[in-house]
Write a structure and sequence with these properties.
This protein is an alpha/beta fold and 288 residues long. It has helices spanning 63-71, 111-121, 126-139, 155-167, 185-202, 213-219, 253-283, and strands at 17-28, 37-48, 52-56, 78-83, 86-87, 96-100, 173-177, 205-209, 222-226, 233-238. The strands form two sheets. The chain has a six-stranded mixed β-sheet, with helices on both faces.
């Protein structure tokens, strides 16, 4: 299934495309007696400039692999990847920012120095660093904690630090790999509000990987539903939410319809994934 061609807007002009995966697969080679793992694809995905796109799927279906291939962190085994019309291979392209689930803040640096880290490495002028970091910390609600260290912050606040460190680089495509997976449900919804504010303010394209159907349904313009491994897109759900939205949208009737459609596909695929995990645990080693 071509994730760019289903739903409304499949005929949009190519000029609106921001990033593209074409026939992408990812196969991990055999290691230490284990069989090769076909983790992903083939996958086709057209990301529209300025949209909020989420990917949901069962555990182990290749969601994070898709993100890392799009970011240039892993090579595709087959297929092509492009960002703003240029091939992606070997490194994260200029204009792409990535935030992972794991707390990636540097514990020995203050909040301010964490946010400034990438700019300093890039040799940005000190006055510009001051401006960007101050602006990002204020936007993320961290201005009063700029001299604090990560150990003094909650998990949600540490993730805000990681987002601020990405935000100061002014990315045009932001890739989020389950950044709120370790947070409780209420904090996740509130962090979702922060991400929506960030999205509206920057105009960036966002791709979010998540296990949480409510998170995907609330945040997204479109949600791609992936199959069990090897991950392929089974459905593309257009939410049709207004751009000015927040977590209160979960009380609307349409929200339940979106999550029900997501779960319609994911229940069966999750059961398949559980079966794959059991088979791998029982006898996944390659024959000698």
């Amino acid at each position: 299934m071509n994730a760019g061609a289903s739903g409304n807007g499949g005929g949009r002009a190519a000029a609106e495309l921001h990033a593209e995966l074409g026939g992408v697969t990812r196969v991990y080679p055999a290691v230490a007696g284990y069989r090769p793992v076909h983790a992903l694809g083939p996958v086709d995905l057209d990301l529209r400039r300025g949209e909020f796109f989420s990917v949901v799927g069962p555990s182990g279906c290749g969601k994070s692999t898709l993100l890392e291939v799009l970011a240039g962190l892993q090579p595709p085994s087959e297929g092509k990847v492009s960002f703003e019309g240029k091939p992606v291979h070997g490194q994260v392209p200029e204009g792409v920012g990535v935030v992972f689930q794991e707390d990636a803040s540097f514990p020995w640096l203050s909040v301010w120095d964490n946010a400034a880290f990438g700019l300093r490495r890039a040799g940005v002028d000190s006055a510009e660093i001051e401006r960007r970091v101050g602006d990002a910390l204020a936007f993320m609600g961290l201005k009063d904690f700029q001299r604090a260290y990560p150990a003094q912050l909650s998990g949600g606040m540490r993730q805000r630090v990681c987002i601020a460190r990405t935000l100061v680089l002014q990315p045009r495509l932001i890739l989020l790999d389950e950044p709120f997976g370790a947070l409780d449900a209420q904090t996740r919804l509130l962090m979702g509000d922060e991400v929506l504010r960030l999205w509206r303010r920057t105009g960036a394209t966002i791709l979010l990987i998540t296990h949480a159907l409510d998170e995907a349904a609330m945040l997204s313009d479109r949600v791609g539903v992936m199959s069990a491994r090897p991950g392929r897109f089974l459905d593309l759900v257009e939410t049709k939410w207004p751009k000015e939205r927040d977590s209160t949208i979960v009380s609307e009737a349409g929200f339940g319809e979106v999550t029900a459609r997501l779960w319609h596909h994911l229940r069966g695929e999750s059961l398949k994934a559980l079966g794959q995990s059991g088979a791998a645990a029982a006898g996944g080693r390659a024959e000698a």
